[in-house]
Amino acid sequence: MTTTTTAEQLSATTLLRFATAGSVDDGKSTLVGRLLHDSKSVLTDQLEAVEHASRNRGQEAPDLALLTDGLRAEREQGITIDVAYRYFATPRRRFILADTPGHVQYTRNMVTGASTAELAVVLVDARNGVVEQTRRHAAVAALLRVPHVVLAVNKMDLVEYAEPVFAAIAEEFTAYAASLGVPEITAIPISALAGDNVVEPSAHMDWYGGPTVLEHLETVPVSHDLTGCHARFPVQYVIRPQTAEHPDYRGYAGQIAAGVFRVGESVTVLPSGRTSTIEGIDLLGDSVDVAWAPQSVTLRLADDIDVSRGDLIAPVGDAPAVTQDVEATVCHVADEPLTVGRRVLLKHTTRTVKAIVKDIPSRLTLDDLSQHPAPGKLVANDIGRVVVRTAEPLALDAYADSRRTGSFLLIDPADGTTLSAGMAGASFAAAEEPPAADDDAEWDF
Predict the structure, then answer these.
(1) Which residues contact 402 (CB under 8 A, 6 or more apart)?
(2) Which of 10, 121, 185, 420 has the smallest set of CB atoms within 10 Å of its CB?
(3) Are 233 and 256 in contact (CB under 8 A)?
(4) Among 407, 443, 432, which residue's Cα sits nearest to residue 422?
């Protein structure tokens, strides 16, 4: 009975994806370990293993950072290198946590971890305040359009829990993040090592009346409801059984990326632009009248038109623009540089097309948000603006409108290696689009 009740409770709760970031030694892994430990989300054998490893290192108390730093190199150096994913739940909400590295050379890892996050926790050492890496992580969160950012001012025990120290750091960070277009910033003073304001309220900071980290994570509005977005359906597979039972069945299967689709609704198929009407929607073997994101369904259209994998179905009158010239911000994740003239594959939802990097107008310096014009190439961990020309038209939304249909990957056609992660449209919410690049008369597509 207990197991059944717990499963029912979990199925009724919402899911929050969040990422942690911060400079080296700011205490990210300790915060995550404390969060897991104090919320009773650590198995007994895991805790015993951490206690054993801590004793071997001469530590009296268990080092909770070891709960997330799983690589041997991470434990030896006391740093986070790779993204560590953790899954836990409370009676109020389920969580997928991405503990991301703090080093500059692992910026690409933070981009990976925060790309699907609805909230980012940025840690700051109370003794050091807002540093260069803090601004870098805030900029990455703004680039990825993470809707909620938490500033966790850690190690308050080392500054005698002084309110003026916290207030000064919170004011500086909030002004900076707001200038990048971050819509919501919440500052919380904590001590991950001592457990102050992580799960339980601190007895040492009676001047702070806000939520603990866990309380905020449990109550922050989950604003990733995709049903209110522009309806988008990338076609993944065409179903044609051609059996005696279903001789004329033709369905288009996939996962609804955003919005709601209804039987009888007029839709257009992109990039061809052909129109039809939704004749039926099949969900888990049953016919339904309405389906919404992120359900996986099969759409049946009234007209027998050419639809294949990679096409995008959208409502008539609310369809994205079709283009072969993609202007975007990319984070380069490969060790091999991305250069002008490089031939790549561009993967957008279920569609993969050939493309050429037409221009790299600028590289972003995250320290001060300045633009380095015409860098010629992007190397690993660089973030820059690119113009890509595709061999076939793409139905691409702006990343600001849809993180799902506004994102894409650039792939090496030789070996399938991911080169860059791209976000179509403007870099920051408050930023203006750079001028369009001149047309290349010698373009061979």
Answers:
(1) 229, 230, 232, 257, 258
(2) 10
(3) yes
(4) 407
